[in-house]
Amino acid sequence: RLLQIPWIHVAHTALYSITLVILSSFLLELLALVYLLGPKQFFKQVTYVVDLVIVAMSLSLEILLKHASKEVLSVIPGILIIFRVWRFVRIGHGLVASTYELQQHKLHLAVSYIEELEERVKKYEDEPTRTAKMDKLIRRLSSSNVEH
Predict the structure, then answer these.
(1) For residue 72, how many other CB atoms are within 10 A of its CB?
(2) In angstroms, rounded to a whole number, what is the distance separating the alpha carbons of residues 95 and 3?
(3) 146 has a pLDDT exceeding 60
(4) CA-CA-CA-CA torsion for 124, 125, 126, 128, nearest 10 degrees?
(5) pLDDT at 49 over 70
(6) pTM to 2 decimals?
(7) Average pLDDT over residues 65-92
(8) For residue 61, what pLDDT is reported?
């Protein structure tokens, strides 16, 4: 019934195309990650593997559902939604992880700077004794100049 309205058909086609582009870009990203990390390292990470399976299945289901029967169409969307929610969870996790790494880097820099300052303070803690010795020497020299 809804597909009888012309603009809905156009919107449906456009959204379907956008979905295919987005899922394809996710799949390409994951395949590039397999290539860059190497299959051995990639498949050690469970979250990467789950992500790859979900994106590949989502893309496959999206294409298959375009041509599927109505009975299949009534069951599959729920599963597809769960897969896509997982993808958003992974994106959120990536954002949190990168923020954490950035904060860890800043913390490391701050700790290094504090250690450097502590070393400087230690170095200058000996300074008062040098100053006291210098004062003593100046007094001695002053008193010896006054006597001459």
Answers:
(1) 13
(2) 38
(3) no
(4) 90
(5) yes
(6) 0.47
(7) 73
(8) 79
